[in-house]
Design brief:
- One of its GO terms (cellular component) is plasma membrane.
- Pfam families: Lectin_legB, PK_Tyr_Ser-Thr.
- One of its GO terms (biological process) is defense response.
- Residues 307-595 form the Protein kinase domain.
- By secondary structure, this protein is of the alpha+beta class.
- Helices cover 22% and strands 26% of the residues.
- It contains twelve helices and 29 strands.
- Strands 1, 3, 4, 7, 12, 13, 14 and 16 form an eight-stranded antiparallel β-sheet that branches.
- A hairpin with a 6-residue loop joins strand 10 (170-175) and strand 11.
- The longest helix is centred in the middle third of the chain and has 21 residues, at 412-432.
- The radius of gyration is 26 Å and the shape is globular.
């Protein structure tokens, strides 16, 4: 991992030095602080300093007392937030992994840390130790003015009543004051709070139209959320510093940043370019800071042995995928060569202006996607001979090969982790990015497994953007898909949505638990996995659908039942009745939430041993109400908690899950 990331960091730095002064395109970066050179992008002040594997925001040595310690670390370059000339406002998303470590001898820890946006260049504020978190002078009652203006997300691990803290352990949004505009308790999951000493991951997203600043904090499998409406234009200058601040008072703790990524939509004006070469250069600048690079066609020809048949890994809807071996000079490691295995996807041989524009738009979007459960885009090739994408080669191949292998069987714990990884990737695509991304073709052959059987969703050939605020697609091609995984409402209406991905997720969930494909043609008839499982559910025998190789462990069967029921819920025929990915993930992970009660008779009568339907009736739904149903898609409303995003009438009785 080291040499590859070192090379990526080097490419990122060199391209930044060449193109940064123009800032023609939006800034974006992805830094892992265990990589050599990553901390060179960061400026430190006060007690903050880099180590070989992380950023330390406060002192951590015994040579000097670590109480009353204050430190800041920020990105070394200005980040455009809004433009007075054009009136544009940025949307952005940033994700960072971090750790707060409590002193073992103390029941309480230091005051905490914060992610902030403020004046550039940043600086440590005098008398800002303790509860001020290094953000504003203590006591920080007054609003920040001039260069002290700041907007921050605080991870507060000490109760300061004078700042109206809600408790000793919370996340808050601060606008020119340490008194939070909004906050949420982070102690509701036992052993999973800010001071549990485990690595946490936070995602902060801002949407320019809604002015919504939203925070998702993941501690293990516990998700905490808080959001507030903040007009950043009113509170911050056009260009800002972004970074981290932390402080100790009398009590102490360690505050560490392990990785950090950032991407923004704001594009400042640049000279108009008209030639194809200029367009290609613009594409390179647009994704340079994210890591992917432009490859020469001849290099990819050599890497794949001229796209040899023996190097072919498979074929997607838009072309073949080939194994390749790239040899690159990695100057960051003393001139040694970096041999990298890659997957090269040949998209098209077309070179129309419209096709090229769509290709460039997709590359820019995919290059900003950074998530542990997404296959990483390494680069692209824009040539008259074809349009190609270069991805990391995920070692264990696609999920379908493992599900249907005669030689080995994925265990339930392995399948469960694959499900959670896929759900995490989808939640990121739908909710955590600057723009919502609909994948459009979720199926086992597009889910890769690494050496530890962690899942990585790939193949974004059908992916399209949706604006978070308007719900409108930003690209024009219709989402196609694969039979058996396609949302029936999309087939009928042609309307695309995140709910279409949720439907496909539900089908894949059933497939993983059952070990059966969604559709099988036999003797002119069609086996429908969804119908079959729903028939078993209606008879109270849903566990009979589980892969027989997995049965026998009671604890596993309890979780498999949850997987099957949530799979049915996600694959509900009507979009309005489906959960969001976040809701589905909650039920898949929670031992307390009561499973939704779904309609007993969703489809026409299904034989107990086999679900069969004619080829025109794959998506046929009951025409009228059945016993036990209200209307055609609901049952016994009871004490129902409904999501703000969905009108779902599937029962969520007694669920503790909040509306989303």
């Amino acid at each position: 991992m080291g040499s590859r990331n070192r090379h990526t960091t080097l490419v990122l730095v060199l391209l930044y030095l060449v193109y940064a002064p123009r800032w023609a395109l939006s800034p974006s970066f992805n830094l892992n602080f265990s990589d050599p050179g990553a901390s060179s992008w960061i400026t430190f002040a006060g007690d903050a300093f880099p180590t070989a594997s992380m950023l330390e925001l406060t002192r951590n040595t015994h040579e000097r007392a670590i109480n009353e310690s204050v430190g800041r670390a920020w990105y070394s370059y200005k980040v455009p937030l809004w433009s007075n000339a054009t009136g544009e406002m940025a949307s952005f998303t940033t994700t960072f992994s971090f750790q707060i470590i409590q002193a073992q001898s103390l029941e309480l820890t230091g005051d905490g840390m914060a992610f902030f946006l403020g004046h550039f260049p940043s600086a440590v504020v005098p008398e800002s130790q303790g509860g001020s978190l290094g953000l504003l002078p203590d006591p920080a009652f007054a609003n920040g003015i001039d260069d002290s203006r700041i907007v921050a997300v605080e991870f507060d691990s000490f109760l300061n009543a004078i700042y109206d803290d809600i408790n000793v352990n919370h996340v808050g949004i601060d606008v020119n004051s340490i008194k939070s505009t909004a906050s949420t308790d982070t102690t509701t999951w036992p052993g999973k709070n800010l001071t549990s000493s485990i690595v946490m991951e936070a995602t902060v997203t801002y949407h320019n139209e809604s002015k919504m600043l939203a925070v998702d904090l993941l501690i293990g499998d516990a998700l905490y959320q808080v959001n507030a409406i903040v007009d950043l234009r009113r509170h911050l200058p056009e260009q800002v510093a972004i970074g981290f601040s932390a402080a100790n008072g009398v009590l102490v703790g360690l505050h560490r940043i392990l990785s950090w990524s950032f991407s923004s939509t704001l594009e400042l004006s640049s000279p108009l370019q008209t030639s194809k070469n200029a367009d290609r250069d613009g594409l390179e600048r647009g994704v340079a800071a994210s890591g992917p690079k432009r490859y020469k066609y001849r290099d990819l020809v050599a890497a794949t042995s001229n796209f040899a048949e023996e190097e072919k890994l498979g074929r997607g809807g838009f072309g073949g995928v080939y194994r390749g071996h790239l040899t690159q000079l990695a100057a960051a490691v003393g001139g040694q060569q970096d041999h990298r295995a890659v997957a090269v996807k040949v998209l098209s041989t077309e070179s129309s202006e419209q096709g090229r524009r769509e290709f460039e738009a997709e590359v820019k979007v995919i290059s900003m996607l950074k998530h542990r459960n997404l296959a990483q885009l390494l680069g692209w090739c824009d040539s008259r001979k074809g349009l190609l994408l270069v991805y990391e080669l995920v070692t264990e191949g696609s999920l379908d090969k493992h599900l249907y292998s005669k030689d080995k069987c994925l265990t339930w714990p392995q399948r469960y982790e694959i499900i959670l990884g896929l759900g995490s990737a989808l939640h990121y695509l739908h909710r955590e990015g600057v723009q919502c991304v609909v994948h459009g073709d979720i199926k086992p052959s597009n889910i890769m497994l690494d050496s530890s059987h962690s899942s990585k969703l790939g193949d974004f050939g059908l992916a399209r953007l949706i604006d978070h605020d308007t719900g409108l697609f930003q690209t024009t091609k219709a989402v196609q898909g694969t039979v058996g995984y396609i949302d029936p409402e999309f087939v009928n209406t042609g309307r695309r949505s995140t709910e279409s991905d949720v439907y496909s997720f539900g089908v894949v969930l059933l497939e993983i638990v059952c070990g059966r494909p969604p559709v099988v043609e036999t003797a002119g008839k069609t086996f429908s996995l969804l119908r079959w499982v729903w028939g078993l559910y209606s008879r109270g025998a849903i566990l009979d659908a589980a892969d027989p190789r997995l049965k026998g462990v009671e604890a596993n069967e309890w979780w498999m039942e949850r997987g099957l029921v949530i799979g049915l819920w996600c694959a509900f025929p009507y979009r309005s009745e489906r959960p969001s990915v976040m809701q589905a993930m909650h039920f898949l992970q929670s031992e307390e939430a009561t499973l939704p009660e779904l309609p007993q008779h969703m489809y026409r009568a299904v034989r107990p041993d086999l679900a069969l339907c004619n080829r025109q009736g794959d998506y046929s739904i009951d025409d009228g109400p059945r016993p036990g149903c209200v209307g055609s898609s609901s049952a016994n409303i009871g004490n129902t908690i409904l999501s703000a995003e969905s009108s779902s009438t599937a029962l969520l009785r007694h669920s503790k899950f909040p509306t989303v």
